[in-house]
Amino acid sequence: MPTRRLIALTALALTGTLAAAAPSFAATPAPGRDRERSFAVIGDVPYGADQVAAFPRWVDQINAADPALTFHVGDIKNGSTRCDEPYYRMIRADFDRFENPLVYTPGDNEWTDCHRENNGGYAPLGRLALDRQVFFDHPGTTLGRHPARVTSSAAAGFPENVRLRRDDVDFAVVHVVGSNDDLQPWTGLGQSTATRDQVAEEQARMADGIAVVREAFAQARQRHDRAVVVLQQADMFDPTYTPAWTDISAFQPLVQALTDEASRFAGPVYLFNGDSHVFHTDRPLAAGSPWLATYGVRGSADNLQRVTVDGSSNNTDWLRVTVNQPGAAGVLSWERVPYSP
Fold first, then answer.
1. pLDDT value of position 30
2. Which of 129, 158, 165, 204 is the most buried (most CB within 10 A)?
3. Which domain of life is it from (predicted)?
4. CATH fold of 3-338
């Protein structure tokens, strides 16, 4: 292990901080990258010192498989470690290790939950600003050694909300996080209810995310594209517990928008998320799904399939998603690829 990273991991174990690493940026796409018809999805990684140490090696393994691009669906740390800036800088350096474009959307652990004492007692909106500063310093451009251009909501203040199109598939990557999309109280700062600033931030971010989703569907219908893919951190349909309304209420407008748009789209729709850490596939908006009543949704969308990627202690693999040739049984197919020891 390189000396610099060993020192950083020792600091993490002792204090929860990591030595800063300068980010790099490359503006010239590598030749021939678009010929690939697969992409990777990961999330809720790295969690804890062992995964932090392993993460560069895992990035190298994904690079060796040469997916056209990789999506990280949020949570670059676990929920009980500090939200210190040097750690974010180190993860940015790891992200710059990806050979092909990397699209990252924030998770709740790197900002909404940073009010917790064991996270450093930070103001979450301040950590959100830091996350954008570190990871979205070139709006409209992905991360990775050979970045790609994307359509960004940077002008509206949300550089992390992006759209892109590959192989007649439209992608919408939206910043929607657990902790009820940051409407749960910042108890570490002495709050028992959501603050006015907290509510205003969430409503504006959710409105922009829904607009990005609707635009992706509009473009897909106009071009007669094959599928629409939405990626985000929050698991809005977590099957591992029965949520209270205060756990999920903020997601209702997006769930309704997805139902509306998917039901009007002729092709398949795919929703990839992290957050609940256990690989799972289902159709949460299909007719008869209990989630329709939970969210009070009008209509249904049988064509929307949801995929949760492994994360946290289950983070032993990455998800390789293949864009199949026309005529295949599905536009997308996927397999979990184990990391090598």
1. 44
2. 158
3. Bacteria
4. Purple Acid Phosphatase; chain A, domain 2 (3.60.21)
Complete DSSP assignment for 81-92: S---HHHHHHHH
Domain ranges of the chain: 3-338
Amino acid type, 319: L
Alpha-carbon gap, residue 313 to 46, rounded angstroms: 10
Tokens of 323: 């864009």
Structure tokens at 22: 């300068």
pLDDT digits (tens, 9 = 90+) for 252-285: 999 999 999 999 999 999 999 999 999 999 999 9
Amino acid at 85: E
The answer to whether 318 and 338 are in contact (CB under 8 A) is no
- Span 195-253, pLDDT tens digits: 999 999 999 999 999 999 999 999 999 999 999 999 999 999 999 999 999 999 999 99
Alpha carbons 91 and 93: distance in angstroms, whole number: 5
Question: Could you give the CA distance from residue 68 to residue 78 in angstroms, rounded to a whole number?
Answer: 28
Q: What dihedral do alpha carbons 213, 277, 105, 21 form, nearest 10°?
A: -170
